[in-house]
Design a protein that fits this description.
Blueprint: E1 3-8, H1 14-30, E2 34-37, H2 44-49, E3 56-61, E4 64-70, H3 75-83
Parallel strand pairs: 1-2
Antiparallel strand pairs: 1-3, 3-4
Helix pairs in contact: 1-3
Length: 86
């Protein structure tokens, strides 16, 4: 059961810069790795995940999208969502 958490961002995005330290705190608290991906550098992600805004965080398990957040996600909300799939 492979859990994958992907955080999509863009350079210069203020909300993305706000999300980054939250992601680091969640990584430390849960002992997981959150992938940071700039979809403009690999546009296939835009179509694959239907990205329209950044930041967007997508939680997948076994390749299936389980949860999606658009905009800044607070630490507690993100941790709770990830815990549901650990």
């Amino acid at each position: 059961m492979a859990l994958r958490v992907i955080s999509f961002f863009q350079e210069g995005c203020m909300a993305c810069m706000e999300q980054e330290p939250i992601n680091k705190e969640v990584e430390t608290a849960l002992g997981i790795k959150i992938e940071s991906v700039n979809p403009l550098k690999n546009r296939a992600y835009i179509a694959e995940f239907g990205l329209t805004v950044t930041p967007t965080i997508i939680i997948t398990k076994d390749g299936e999208i389980k949860q999606r957040f658009e905009g800044v996600v607070h630490r507690e909300q993100l941790e709770d969502a990830i815990r549901n799939y650990l």
